[in-house]
Amino acid sequence: MVPHPPRRPGSDEQAVTPPAGAGHGPGRRAVLRGGLVAAAGVAATAAVSSCQVGSNGSSTVATTRPAAAGSEPTDAATVAFRGARQAGVVTDPQPFAAFVGLDLPKGADRDTCRRLMGVWTDDIERLMAARGPLTDLEAELAQVPSRLTVTVGVGPGFYAAADLRAHAPSWLAPLPRFSIDRLDQAWRQTDVVLQVRADSPVAVAHATRRLVVGADPLANQVWVQRGFREPLTATDAGLPFRNQFGQIDGTVQPATNGPDDPLLWIGAGDPKPPKGLAGGTSMVIRRIAMNMDTWDRADRVARENAIGRRLDNGAPLTGTKPTDHPNLQAKDALGFPVIDDASHLRRAMPAQPHERILRAPYAYDDPPVGSARTNTGLVFVAFQADPVRQFVPIQTRLAEADLMNIWTTPIGSSVYAVLPGAGAGETLGQALLS
Amino acid sequence: MSRSTLFTHVTLSAISPRARLTATVAVVGCAFALSGCGTSTSAADTAPAGSGASSTAPAAAAPKAEVTLDSGWVKAGSGMTAAFGTITNHSSVPVTLVKGTSDKAGMVALHTMEKQTDGTMKMTEKKGGFLIPAGGNLSLNPGGDHIMLMEVSGPLANGQKVALNMVATDGTTFAWSVPVRSFAGAQETYAPAVPGMTGMTSTAPAATK
Fold this sequence. Notes:
The structure holds two protein chains of two kinds.
Chain A: H1 28-34, H2 38-49, E1 73-75, E2 78-79, E3 96-103, H3 110-128, E4 149-154, H4 156-161, E5 192-198, H5 201-214, E6 220-228, H6 261-264, E7 281-290, H7 292-295, H8 300-307, H9 344-348, E8 358-359, E9 362-366, E10 375-384, H10 387-390, H11 392-400, E11 408-418, H12 430-433
Chain B: H1 17-33, H2 40-45, E1 54-56, E2 67-75, E3 77-89, E4 95-102, E5 105-115, E6 121-125, E7 130-132, E8 137-140, E9 146-156, E10 161-168, E11 173-181
Parallel strand pairs in B: 2-11
Antiparallel strand pairs in B: 1-11, 2-3, 3-8, 3-9, 4-7, 4-10, 5-6, 5-9, 10-11
């Protein structure tokens, strides 16, 4: 039998009231395309984002999503690179993404790390401004502004190479082995990671290529994980992310406009942040294979029971709107819980207020291998100040019991420290490598 | 001229010893003659981090033309390599760069690529130097005008910086700190020894018409 998760009265009382007009504002893309001033864009963003709600249930807070500091658009469709925090964390997820894991070469030292970050700082600044990097002979591919963001993270190997192991945050280590994991070394932890996201797959492909070959021989590519989400269309800007099972995912999130900063950003709540990481965060990347063939056998009632939410709009099975708070005590006419004890929503609910994470997942649908008809799943991406404190308890509960485990298998797992942003004249990682 | 055409170079070792000696002497002579050459080291050290290209006005007190290398870069490598970017003349008078020195290369030369009568691309010395009009600029690109670095002292690695000191006809020196970048193009396919520095033959495939 599934263990009953702890009940925590009051856990549903952190809700932030959505702003008036939530869900009725003009689409973000429409605003951006329309070239309105940034202030209008922020207002529209807040309105749009408040109607994005989650299936994971790991947060009980509906948020407003004004553009975060350091990521205000500098023109219609570019995101600022310079700032105290890197872009691509609280930036509204663009529809296309590539995650690239790279390793430093053998014999790499702190100078290698410095030079790598120097090269990437300049290349990323140019790319995000819709310009080609220095050596780019096909710069036209960079010149269509498409909200490109590139986010750099470092793994334990980076600290080791830079002789900074003593300064590495304690959480920068492999996650605990979960019973459900079937990890494939193809998606292993690497020394550094690039998250490249944009409105255009052309921009993602070009930026990824230029950053990877531009880093040669300071870092060598290990894996690439490409993903996509529903494009933000002018007609339905609030369209939430749905995974390839059709479930609304990555929905109820921590507030990205300040109140939850201690959960999102290193140094926002910790008076003694790890060296050089104030303004950074952590990024967990887990590759979740989804068995489409067995999922096809489940009817919609079974699917909704597994997730604990309605498939049509993501509302909890005890509610009607996505933002409704789940009533975990509700019973049906026969006395069974309306929200199943092993449902994803219930198992992912925070047992403590700090067990919340900012999710930015992407679907993948890669070419099948062998006789398989699909190679489909989720690039689960979560940002949080401390993954051991915030993410591991959630994942532990999900590994113990989650009906979704019937159809999903984690096959990759890695954890990175996302460096702080680079201010004017600074290089990414400068404070860490000084 | 096609910007995408690969250019080819002759290794320095392939140059006759006599020609090499002559060229080296010429550069050394320039270094002695120009006090401005001394600014190179400090320019490299004070370059702002993270900037794609930086430039420093000549150290001399007299007001002189300001010429910068914008978005400049040097191809990583050893032996012989080249610098690219956009030379911008911020002054109201035309400037002609005629020679240069570097902290990382024994020889610096101003070169261009020219299509020959047989259709091949050949690297030649830029006759008369690089003329940058008042308020104008000159693009240095693989396959076009470029600053050759020869006798490179040790491999130039991605992410390092190189100091370039480019000298105008009036003796003014412009000190640039230029980042080194990995680059697959600008392939130097080394040709057999040929006499002389100018009019070096090339192994580049003939251009198709």
